[in-house]
Design brief:
Elements: E1 19-20, E2 24-28, H1 34-45, H2 54-63, E3 68-73, E4 78-87, H3 99-103, E5 119-127, H4 136-150, E6 155-160, H5 165-171, H6 178-183, H7 195-202, E7 205-221, H8 222-231, E8 238-241, E9 244-246, E10 252-255, E11 259-271
Helix pairs in contact: 1-2
């Protein structure tokens, strides 16, 4: 059965996910709204080689419409969104796929979506820059948990991106290892150093294991790589060996004679469905 042919479970319609407050509305975004999601959330949050295109964002709504949730301001602008993928988790962290394997190629989930899967993966969470720090992470995670419960899905998980690793490697410790960084804590409060992992942990996330080579962008032509270096945050690019570049992002570029490959690791985590209370700050 294709995603387009599947039926929504009895009693569960997309409109049940629509929730409102005085400031915003929570609902799945529609295919025709994919360009808005791209312009206001993908572009400011992701490097150009990692952005999901409007076409990919629209296709995800066809594959798993209930899993493409957005928070909308009263003036119709997207404030935050999450892209979910549905799959089956056997309880063994070592059997979890990479981010790329779970989303498939193209990264729409169309070849990997499991209608009977017992888990959802939060594959991308974005908050508009002018809405960051306003508690929307908690709102979007609660929306995911609620939707998972309505769909009868047991596990809420994600291959999460330690978003400050690149900055830390540049400014604090150029020899920092990824495995050491994800467990590093702030001395003042003993909370995780990385802001995104810290926010997720406050909302009930437990780390399971490193997702090695979670996202790989291969065979980028040298001309395109050079354009990235000159146009995307050029001051943050640093050559650390003759063939390895840091770019200020979580991953690294491995550069050959005619092409380059971007390689990034993430962290697999799971959120406790039974505990929606964030940890104390």
């Amino acid at each position: 059965m294709s995603p387009q042919e599947r039926k929504v479970p009895d009693g569960m319609e997309i409109r049940k996910q629509e929730r409102t407050s005085d400031r915003y509305e929570i609902r799945p975004y529609k295919p025709e709204e994919a360009q808005k999601i791209f312009d206001e959330l993908e572009v400011p949050n992701w490097a150009p080689w990692l952005r999901a295109s409007p076409e990919v964002l629209a296709k995800r709504t066809e594959v798993f419409p209930e899993g493409q949730i957005a928070i909308w301001s009263k003036d119709g602008r997207p404030m935050a969104n999450v892209n979910l993928s549905r799959f089956n988790y056997d309880g063994n962290p070592q059997s979890l796929p990479t981010w790329d394997e779970l989303m498939g190629n193209p990264p729409t989930g169309e070849h990997t979506f499991d209608l009977n899967g017992n888990a959802v993966g939060m594959m991308s969470i974005n908050v508009r820059p002018d809405s960051q720090g306003g508690g929307l992470t908690r709102v979007i995670i609660d929306a995911v948990k609620k939707s998972a419960q309505e769909l009868g899905i047991k596990h809420v998980m994600g291959s999460f991106r330690p978003s400050q690793f690149g900055e830390y490697s540049d400014a604090v410790d150029k020899h920092a290892s990824f495995s050491d960084y994800i467990s590093k804590k702030r001395p003042e409060d003993n909370l995780l150093y990385d802001a995104w992992l810290r926010a997720l942990t406050r909302n009930g996330m437990r780390m399971l294991r490193i997702d090695d080579a979670a996202m790989v962008i291969p065979d980028v032509l040298q001309e395109q790589f050079d354009e990235y270096r000159s146009t995307y945050k050029p001051k943050r690019w640093k050559k650390i060996t003759p063939n390895v570049w840091r770019c200020g992002e979580t991953g690294l570029w491995l550069v050959g004679n005619t092409s380059a490959t971007y390689l990034e690791s993430n962290v697999w985590g799971i959120l406790d469905q039974q505990n929606n209370t964030p940890q104390a700050k």
